[in-house]
Amino acid sequence: MKRPKYMFWLILFSIFFILIFSACDSNTSNINGDEPIASQTITYGGSSWIGHLPAYIAVEKGFFEEQGVDVEFMNFSTSSERMTALASGEIDFASTGAISAISLMAAGDDNFSIFGAPDTYIGQEGIVAKGMTSIEDLRGKKVAVTFASSSHIMLLDIFNQHGLVLNKDVEIINMAGGDIVSSFTTGEIDAGAIWSPHFENLTHVDGAVVLAMDTDTSIYKNYGFGSGPDVLVIRNEFIKDNPNTTEKLVKGYFHSAHWIEENPKEAAELFVTLTNLDIDEQEQIINHVNWLDLEQQKDMLSENGELTGTLEFLASFMTENHLINNSVDVKEWINIDILP
Amino acid sequence: MTSFHNSPTLANQKNTNNFPKRNQKSPPKRKKKKFTLSLKIVSILSFLSFLAIWEIITQMGFIPPLFLPAPSQVVVRGYQMLIDGELIGHIFSSSRRVIVGFLISALAAVPFGILLGSSKTLKAIFDPIISIIRPLPSMAWIPLSLLWLGIGEEQKYAIVFMGSFAPALLYTIDATRSVNPILIKAARNFGASNLTVMREVILPGSMPSIFAGLKVVLGLAWTTVISAELVAANEGLGFLIMNGKEYFMTDVIILGMAMISLTVIIIDIVLNWVEKKIIPWREET
């Protein structure tokens, strides 16, 4: 018997719809993450940036294990990749640059919370040039920076202060940290704006001069934070499904931050395996960072806390500079109830 | 020499075998035209249905906009960026990089490929080098290209060139080798010199396949421009996509992707027109 022609189309559309709906279903379960995962490995999103030191040390020294939680440290090269992994449920918690967190808020993702900050750092990033003495000397020059990073915000802020207009007075090029160092060395770029450990590498280049530091930004002057402070983020569904594990995780994390303050040398020895820096230089960087303890978190993230103010300032700055399209109320993402 | 002027048609006999048989009845032209038109309508309807299903699924909230924005959202974003003049700048930058990189690779690959396709000795000499270069993705050339050429436009052209040279070369070698050897032999029997055989038999015979290959390579060149714009770029569709990724602007990412497809379609139409003009015998095959 000959099959009617419409059967083919019916089967084709059925397959298409099944595929679409199964994709939606798998997405939703990823986002919701509604399976109890306390007995499974919890994934932390990190990198070689100094802000990940507490989590790295907590894994290496077994501080999470002491709390009865198994945490895996997963490396991501950028904050946006880390936040994408958080949004898709691939990782459970992370420390990340506030720029990326605010960008994700602006994109409408309300499946995560900010519950703290690992550190306040100063002197960890800056603008480095050759043969110049001031920011004004950058007029007509080529400056490289990693877009959507704290250094990008720092550059915009400092240029605003000095009345320099991007891509009119100064040519801005988007480059990754390692590429900035190599291009600066070969003279392809006149200046670079970057964070540690690339910042230190940049200052080691012959004739390198630091034109500005993160301490020169209006964010630092007003709130005492760097231009893209690190924030601790966690998936809301993880908190909902694992309230006890969340508490243990937070305790283990801040125990590690406290340990770092007391043992910077040992922390440096462990962390150089990620950064490839000299141990003494690594120790210096660790000592420069102000590691925040559990008690400070609630104050900083309160209604009028410095970190809350910084995040609000950043969100407005990013909207005004057309980096994000929607204004966000960052307070809606702050959750200090999970802090023990 | 005039006897070889018709050789392109003959030269392609090996590839096609599509010649209508003498007694075969060809379908009435009107019926054929109607059929082609209805196929076009099916294509348009299929595309519109795809967009409609996508719009419905996203508007109904089955997929969050962060993961997949509605087509209407992408259109609105595209309109805004078009009004700002930003979108045109990105399209122009990428198109320039693709066209320059592609043209350089075609200019190098086609004559070289014809030579290698015509000479077994030359092919044996260069085969090992081609085999090494061929599987390398364009991204693998980024670190070296930065060191050799810096961060300017030349580096981006070089990435497109490296991504499209090997495929263009292979298509050309293949097209040259597929020319019917009987035709080459016949030309030689008529006393044609090597140069004449090349000009009158091999070139016209292989040109349709070379052109078809180059069209595929042009599509590949667009994939390489994304790699080229990953480093040290502040405009271009690759940059637009990567910057959209940094700020989680999924609508910008899809807009960038759609613009690449649209630009490739437009360039393809232009290439088809050029092909008809410079290789009219392709129509006959």
UniProtKB/TrEMBL annotation, chain A:
The family this protein is said to belong to: Belongs to the bacterial solute-binding protein SsuA/TauA family.
Protein name, per record: Aliphatic sulfonate ABC transporter substrate-binding protein
Source organism superkingdom: Bacteria
Domain SsuA/THI5-like, chain residue ranges per copy: 51-267
Pfam families: NMT1
GO molecular function, one term: ATPase-coupled transmembrane transporter activity
Keyword tags: Signal, Transport
Predominant localisation class: periplasm
Location in the cell: Periplasm
GO cellular component: membrane; periplasmic space
Taxonomic lineage from the root: Bacteria, Bacillati, Bacillota, Bacilli, Bacillales
